[in-house]
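Incident log, structure service

09:12 report received: a user says their structure output differs between two submissions of the same chain.
09:20 pulled the input from the user's history:
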Amino acid sequence: MSFSHDWLALRARFDSAARSTALESRLADWAAARAHRGPLSVIDLGAGSGNNLAHLKQRLGVDQRWTLLDSDPALLAEAARRHPDAAVRQADLADDLAALIPTGTDLVTASALIDLVPQTWLQRLVERVLALNCALFVVLTYDGRIAWETETAGDREIRALVNRHQHGDKGMGPALGPGAPDALKSLLPGIEVARSDWEVAAGDAAMRAALVDGWASAAKEIASERSADIASWRASAVDRPRAVTVGHADQLWLPSA
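09:34 re-ran on a clean worker, output below:
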């Protein structure tokens, strides 16, 4: 369930542009209201190279203490280099969440994570958040929408195959995939939801190529018998400049007083 440093660096600009400023403001207001209690203790699940911290810390505007959890030591080393004040910890997110999210945690956050986990794991996360009465801010969860400018039949077929692939085992069991935002909403009624779509312009060639390569690879894993057609789609999608919107959701849960 780990991602390359190059991919995380490439997507960072699109992530920051997509994220919900309204939910971030709500979280910042909540953090300011409890600032008298001391530094905000933040656990970042699947933190990678620290992009979530880089974006969010400056927007919260209060004293914070971050702990970054990830299974990839190379990404954690990069996170430690970028954020020397944060604690970094190599951890398997399938482990006991009570140990990973200790008592005293004020905010649990995760970026581009919950579409990769099974329902049982998400249930355990919600149970831990409710037990601690802490905030939960889950961002950039893929929701199944891929909308091309001047969409073709091939685009629709690839989207369907990609969304089937998203339900495969990403290391913890069958993943929620595009159903993750609704699954979290059902577990936490009243959670705030906002779109956080990537808007990839026709001129964003590097991002478009990375997306197309990833989608083509996923599609081939689902429908290997269509490899030739998928390769043809890939070549056309890379070479033909078109804008594409990739659907994501941000979700915020704030604890009771």
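09:41 both user submissions now match this output. Likely a transient worker issue. Closing.
09:42 reviewer note: The first strand starts at residue 40 and ends at 45. The two ends are 35 Å apart (CA to CA).
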